[in-house]
Amino acid sequence: MVQSPLVRELIEAFRCLPGVGPKSAQRMTYALLQRDRGGAQQLARALDAAVEGVGECEQCRTLSETAVCGLCASDRRDAGVLCIVENPADIQALEDATDYRGRYFVLKGRLSPLDGIGPAELGLEVLEARFNRGEVREIILATNPTVEGEATAQYVAEMARGADIRVSRIAHGVPLGGDLEYVDSGTLSHAFAGRSNYE
Amino acid sequence: MVQSPLVRELIEAFRCLPGVGPKSAQRMTYALLQRDRGGAQQLARALDAAVEGVGECEQCRTLSETAVCGLCASDRRDAGVLCIVENPADIQALEDATDYRGRYFVLKGRLSPLDGIGPAELGLEVLEARFNRGEVREIILATNPTVEGEATAQYVAEMARGADIRVSRIAHGVPLGGDLEYVDSGTLSHAFAGRSNYE
């Protein structure tokens, strides 16, 4: 190893990013140290600020630095319609692709008993309590079209039917086994518009 | 925009990394905030430490947190042989691929008059002074095989010949227009071993 320890540590630290292997980490390190130290400091500040300040919205569980996120706080969004997604990133994808005007609920995962992820980890008790308060009249299931995503959708649908809520599922225009976050807007828009009642 | 300001700022900050577009930046942000806040803090620390602590070696101009880098300080490296490279990352690539036991000199760029990069920016006065002190008996030109890299090699070769130093150039097994840092080790090893006298 010919790199100085701090350089090596920075390369190592970049490996925590998704999709970044040893070569990319090295490239990022050299690029920042040689050409963009200002950017590096800004990135360090932004990381600290986000880790420090960003928690989750107490209503929809998305990433938020306020107790209630902007979408849940907005009275221009219909509180009677709830779109159920797996990840905060899915909200952004849906907002970009559709003209949905309801609100969201983020599961932060999917039912996966083998990994110890059950209804409690996904905040489903909170969701059920909300269903039972009667403020929600419709839900749209937008979990990923994977086996676990389907099972999760089934589970939430059961809960909703128990509270007499209309349930729909986004259409399977989304390719099976795909990841909602990375689908192109057109496909996602069609899938959202062509949602069907959930049996 | 449905993201909270701190999340948005972090996504923006990730854009300073090479090869990171809006989608990757978003993916990195969500991945860290949802699953690896420890990694995010460590990355922030490593960025700060590196920006703060890493300067350049006063002998070879590579990134170093000490006044003289490990390679230049080591008495197990032949001080009479100098390999001239464009970037600090090239040193790592050559060290990994070859059994070179001499030292390095990092230009931190290449001659490019249109961009205002002349001999002074590449530290060539320093290099020339070193040539004239007579401690260097051989140089190996390992600049990238691009037009500017070739011009730079020519320029350094002239300087060296003036000081009666043997000059060689790594072989053009390295694909033309390529970037030294990303060539596979085998090609690089061959190019290094098959270097020829520089005319």
Indicate the topology.
Two copies of one chain form a homodimer.
Chain A: H1 5-14, H2 22-35, H3 37-53, E1 55-56, E2 63-64, H4 70-73, E3 78-85, H5 88-97, E4 102-106, H6 124-132, E5 138-141, H7 147-162, E6 166-169, H8 185-193, E7 196-197
Parallel strand pairs in A: 3-4, 3-5, 5-6
Antiparallel strand pairs in A: 1-2, 6-7
Helix pairs in contact in A: 1-2, 2-3, 5-8
Spatial extent as radius of gyration of chain A: 20 Å
Give the largest interface.
Answer: A-B, 59 and 59 residues
Global mean pLDDT of chain A: 89
CATH class of the largest domain in chain A: Alpha Beta
Oligomer: homodimer
Largest β-sheet summary of chain A: 5 strands, mixed
CATH architecture of the largest domain in chain A: 3-Layer(aba) Sandwich
| Count of alpha and pi helical runs of chain A | 8
Instruction: Give the CA-CA distance, first to last residue of chain A.
Output: 60 Å
Beta-strand fraction estimate of chain A: 5-15%
CATH topology of the largest domain in chain A: Dna Topoisomerase Vi A Subunit, Chain: A, domain 2
Structural class of chain A: alpha/beta
